[in-house]
Amino acid sequence: MAKDKVDIFDTTLRDGEQVPGCKLNTEQKVVIAQQLDLLGVDIIEAGFPVSSPGDFSSVSEVAKVVKNATVCGLTRAVKKDIEVAAEALRYAKKPRVHTGIGTSDSHINYKFKSSREKVIERAVEAVKYAKSFVEDIEFYAEDAGRTDNEFLARVCEEVIKAGATVLNIPDTTGYCLPEEYGAKINYLRSNVKGIEKVTLSCHCHNDLGLATANSIAGVLNGARQIECTINGIGERAGNTSLEEVVMILKQHPYLNLDTNINTQRLNDMSKLVSESMGMLVQPNKAIVGSNAFAHSSGIHQDGVIKNRSTYEIIDPKDVGVIESSIVLTARSGRAALAYRAKKVGYELTKLQLDVVYETFLNFADKKKEIQDGDIHAIIEASKITTSIYA
Ligand code: KIV
Ligand code: ZN
After folding, report:
1. From the CB of 10, is ligand 1 less than 6 Å away?
2. Phi and psi at residue 168, in whole multiples of 5°?
3. Which of 34, 139, 156, 267 has its CA 20 to 30 A from that of 340?
4. Closest among 276, 281, 247 to 264, alpha carbons compared
């Protein structure tokens, strides 16, 4: 059965770059955009053009160099924003304007001090105005996660009539549970006239650590676009992590959902974003963290050395990592020591390994991690005959 395609909308350069201290200059944004294009993302949200002259020129330069992906610029439901975004996207092969407005009662009452009816009016006006510049218009209903479903359905229906091509249903505050977010997407699919004409998009924040789970719940309920960032960076606790959703769909083929991502580029992409922004990736980060394919307990190491699949569900090569690592610590067993010793040139017999292992434990209790250089010292200190040297 042919797989259904899920579009990957990367917002590293917009939502990701909103992180304090992660500001990128135009040259850096262009380099990242080119790599995102090679990675195979479908849409690159390059920035918020009206926000500053620098962001305008970044979006404009990205629009000029991107070869395959749609290039998108964010706006509020404000005419000036839309005009500036359309101008910044002038040279894009495939331009998209991403406009929208808050739809939750919290946003309507406190942010806009307005009414539901007026918000619908502004939404429709913004989409129609954007449509006078470009064909591809994505509408976001900000704080859709906390928006009453009936009202959200009305907003969606009106903006579809006004010409929206993609409907973004953001869980802006990262509040929803996966069941709730999935049900919201399902509700819209069943209750919005014309919904079959548009793509539904998930844009989930990670305030409760549920951004990835919510995005997956969204696509399981019919959304066909996921908005995400490299390394999961973004406002507050971040956005859905691109590498996580892509690998979830790849590792669960029975879901029949696929993306266009060349996953072997993920590790390098993660490093490029981390280094350009000066934002470290936590070692235990799924897929791209430095420990994602590192094994340190004796039981796990023994399993992985016998067969990788015992403790790994992803082949590291599939995400651009050369090989799994067997880390030597005081929790490691003989199998790991023999494996690492062999890698640096020592083929140990069982009896020799017993002797060397005792010395190793003394070293490992003093040092957090045993490196290749330490292995030579451990073998020397074990006073076993040099005939063991391979
Ligand atoms: O989180 C959010 O709601 C957003 C919108 C501007 C799309 O980033
Ligand atoms: Zn966001």
Report:
1. no
2. -95, 125
3. 267
4. 247
Compute the distance from residue 330 Cα to the ligand 1 centre, in Å.
46
Same domain, 243 and 116: yes
3-state secondary structure (DSSP) of residue 239: strand
Q: Whose CA is nearest to atom 5 of ligand 1?
A: 142
Both tokens of 332, joined, read 């490691």
Name the residues around ion ligand 2, CB cutoff 5 A: 15
> Residues 57, 133: one domain?
yes
Containing structural domain, residue 152: 4-277
Q: State the Cα angle at 41 between 36 and 45, rounded to 5°.
A: 75
d(CA 126, CA 130): 6
DSSP of 286-326: TTTSTTTTEE-SHHHHHHHHH-GGGT-SS-GGGGT----EE
Residue nearest to atom 8 of ligand 1 (CA): 15
Token pair of 206, please?
């990670």
Which atom of ligand 1 is nearest to 11's Cα?
Answer: 8
The answer to whether the beta carbons of residues 251 and 244 sit under 8 Å apart is no
Judge if the beta carbon of residue 170 lies within 6 A of ligand 1: yes
pLDDT, one tens digit per residue, over 143-181 is 999 999 999 999 999 999 999 999 999 999 999 999 999
| pLDDT tens, position by position, 267-289 | 999 999 999 999 999 999 999 99
3-state helix, strand, coil in the chain (%, to 5): 50, 15, 35
Q: What is the DSSP string of 85-115?
A: HHHHTTT-SSEEEEEEEE-SHHIIIIIS---
**Is residue 248 situated within a structural domain?**
yes
Instruction: Ligand 1, residue 98: give the atom nearest the CA.
Output: 7
Return the residue whose CA atom lies nearest to atom 6 of ligand 1. Answer: 142
CA-to-CA distance for 244 and 258, rounded, in angstroms? 13
- 3-state class of 362 per DSSP? helix
Give the model confidence (pLDDT) of 337-368 as tens digits: 999 999 999 999 999 999 999 999 999 999 98
Q: Are residues 189 and 221 in the same domain?
A: yes
Q: Measured from the CB, is residue 163 less than 6 Å from ligand 1?
A: no
One domain for residues 184 and 75: yes
Q: Could you tell me if residue 65 is inside a domain? A: yes
Identify whether residues 203 and 255 lie together within a single domain.
yes
| C-beta separation of 319 from 267 below 8 A | yes
